Amino acid sequence: MRRDLKMRLIDERLQCDWCHKWLFGLGDLHEWLVKRNALPKDKRIFDERNCALLHHNCHMEHGQTTAMTEQLAPIFIARYGREAMVDFVEGLGLRQSSQYMQWLI
Predict the structure, then answer these.
(1) In sequence order, what DSSP letters do the residues of 8-48 get, joined into one string?
(2) pTM value?
(3) Which of 10, 44, 56, 59 has its CA 20 to 30 A from that of 25?
């Protein structure tokens, strides 16, 4: 599922979500808003609204930073719409969803 999503997104996006340079068919899939460790094992966060495509170097240097979240939030809101982003987070049923919602308001 994760690999299929990554391949589809590479075909659709073509550019790194951080530096906006061409991916040339390569890239890391980065869960930018909700991380895997925030969910019970039965929940899935491999959703296009939560997955950025990044050059490996961009991912390693900026992937876990607040700057990454700050830069990606408006990109993903423009790409999918605020309502769809909120629906994604609310659909996860997280106890502390407000920490994610702050980026979507």
Answers:
(1) HHHHHH-B-TTT--B-TT--EEEE-SS-GGGS-TT-----T
(2) 0.90
(3) 44
